[in-house]
Amino acid sequence: MSKRKSVTMDDVDGFSAAQLFGQGVCYTYDDVIFHPGHINFAATEVDLTTKLTKNITIRTPIVSSPMDTVTEADMAIAMASVGGAGFLHYNMTQEEQIANLKAVKAHRLGYVTRPEVVSPDATLEFLDELATRRGFTSACVTDTGAVGGKLLGLVTSRDAELVADRSTKVVDVMTSASDLLVGSATDGVAALEELLLKSKKGKMPVVNAETGELVGLITRASIKQKKLLPPPGAPSLDKKGRLLCGAAIGTRPADRDRAVALAAEGVDALILDSSQGDSTYQIEMVKFLKKTIPEVDVIAGNIVTQNQARRLLDAGADALRVGMGSGSICTTQEVCAVGRGQATAVYKVANLAAQYDVPIIADGGIQNSGHVTKALTLGASTAMCGSMFAGTTEAPGEYFYVDGVRVKKYRGMGSLDAMKKGSDTRYLSESGHLKVAQGVSGTVKDKGSVCKMVPYLIHGVKQGFQDMGAKSHAHATELRNAGDMRVETRTGAAQAEGGVHDMHSYKKVLW
Ligand SMILES: NC(=O)C1=CN([C@@H]2O[C@H](COP(=O)(O)OP(=O)(O)OC[C@H]3O[C@@H](n4cnc5c(N)ncnc54)[C@H](O)[C@@H]3O)[C@@H](O)[C@H]2O)C=CC1
Ligand SMILES: O=c1[nH]c(=O)c2[nH+]cn([C@@H]3O[C@H](COP(=O)(O)O)[C@@H](O)[C@H]3O)c2[nH]1
Ligand SMILES: [K+]
Q1: Strand pairing partners for 71?
Q2: Where is the CBS domain (predicted)?
Q3: Ligand 1: which residues within 6 Å by Cβ?
Q4: Atom of ligand 1 nearest to the CA of 413
Q5: How many C-beta neighbours within 10 Å does residue 256 have?
Q6: pTM above 0.80, yes or no
Q7: Is 413 annotated as a binding residue?
Q8: Residue of 71, 89, 255, 274 with the most ligand 1 atoms within 8 Å of its CB, for mutation
Q9: How many CB atoms lie within 10 A of CB 267?
Q10: Residue 111's closest CA among 211, 235, 283?
Q11: d(CA 178, CA 168)
Q12: Per-residue DSSP letter, 363
């Protein structure tokens, strides 16, 4: 018999999530910290495949928020390309939102996102204006002035720069289609890229060989750019092989028409975009949508409690969006005195939604990969980001400089700024002329492309899962439900210790 005294452990080392979140205190991501688990697999083996909604599975558990400084077509294309999803905002007309959706659905991976296209009658002056605003050096010319029109030619800065008369029409200076290197859309992207590289040319329009209609553009610069990015992995696609795309709508009567029109163009999921989703308006809307366009999944919200969740789940919601006042630009908790700490909100709502087999989206307050990891391990199936993706190349709006720093605008959808643009037709509009903002407007730094950011972010999350000993989302759920995933709160000093400290100076470079 061994003489060594048997080793005893404290009865309680950390808490189960149920214990921690059942004490009448609400916490957010930074308040809580997870205990490491046992590692017997590599971080690269972690599978983060998850449900966006009841019927949609995606490989990358991150989505972009339907805000007018975050998600239009370019962001939705980029997010689906890296295996996540984007939700088009609706602070624009129905026609504009449909045009954005069509651009996503028409996009082919490997092609330039939304190539510049002009009509043959456009003047060089018009081209100059476009170039200054959008910073491009060439444009395809089609009979309709848009992708889908018959390709007539290509106009580059070289064709146009030395022409003194700026009222000259594009048709008079362009290189016509018959003299161009043109690819056929039936060829794969790899073959098209090879053709372009071999030709030593800079750009190649790609057409439908039978009709001559422009399908897209491949450029030497875009091939080079792709080589600099981490491999994106499998994209998120719909049943027809097109990029997945979601969109937001409201709960006003006109939003019913908008929803039906979006469904006709192939939208995959609709978010009912509200700060407080537990309303008769939303319940009626969920029921209407499930009856009228059952092929489209409906995401209801925002909510933060089980009571709110139950009503929306009973109405038939296919996913719930969780978060009230947690967003970086949100002032709802200050203005309205309602909301909840985001970690508690996610945990509590996820617990109830799991009983309906409905996934939840943790929306707002995500600042780093650790927050995504916490959201997912507390029960969210995806994390929704606003500020993290604002300021990227794919976010709407142009860059400008503030105190020498390159920035883009980022604003809350309930800010006065956004309300002026259009959401005032709904936002607190019951009060007539009185407008009380529930968000702010400001700027965020240039962050480069989301196509580069997301793969690193996801790898950070995979490392977090590995540290906790969870191989997948389902495994994390198992550990959490069994009480094997241990969690504690952190004091202010512990939080400070967990961050960078005692440095004279440092630079935080994440990847
Ligand atoms: N997640 C969050 O913490 C917050 C998000 N936001 C964002 O701000 C934007 C605006 O949010 P909300 O003002 O909550 O938008 P909303 O459209 O849900 O509500 C605006 C007002 O219209 C009323 N309303 C809605 N449907 C109606 C109908 N059918 N008939 C009559 N009245 C109706 C609502 O009760 C509310 O008073 C959204 O993009 C939202 O995501 C704003 C504040 C907080
Ligand atoms: O109180 C608010 N006032 C607003 O004006 C506002 N606009 C957006 N949102 C919500 O914030 C989320 C984005 O949050 P992050 O920037 O932290 O990612 C978004 O996804 C929204 O849920 C708002 N909340
Ligand atoms: K906030």
Answers
A1: none
A2: 111-170, 174-236
A3: 250-252, 273-276, 279, 281, 302, 323-325, 327, 330, 332, 364, 413-414, 423, 426-430, 438-439
A4: 8
A5: 18
A6: yes
A7: yes
A8: 274
A9: 27
A10: 235
A11: 21
A12: E
Q: Does the annotation count 426 as an active-site position? A: yes
Determine the Cα–Cα distance for residues 229 and 245; give it in Å rounded to an integer: 22
* pLDDT averaged per 10 residues, the chain (length 511): 65 89 95 97 96 97 98 97 97 97 93 91 90 79 94 91 89 94 93 94 93 94 86 90 97 97 98 98 98 98 98 98 96 94 98 98 97 98 98 95 96 92 56 79 95 94 98 96 95 95 89 77
112: CB partners within 8 A, 6+ apart: 216, 217, 218, 219, 222
Rounded Cα gap, residues 488 and 30, in angstroms: 11
- How far does Cα 6 stand from its chain's mean position? 52
- The closest alpha carbon to 372, from 41, 237, 363, belongs to 363
Delimiting residues of CATH 3.20.20.70 domain(s) in the chain: 43-109+235-398+448-497
CATH architecture under which domain 117-228 falls: Roll (3.10)
The CATH homologous superfamily of the domain defined by 43-109+235-398+448-497: Aldolase class I (3.20.20.70)
Residue showing tokens 């439900």:
481
Tokens of 3: 């003489």
- The token pair at 444 is 């965020």
Query: What residue owns the CA closest to ligand 2's atom 20?
Result: 65
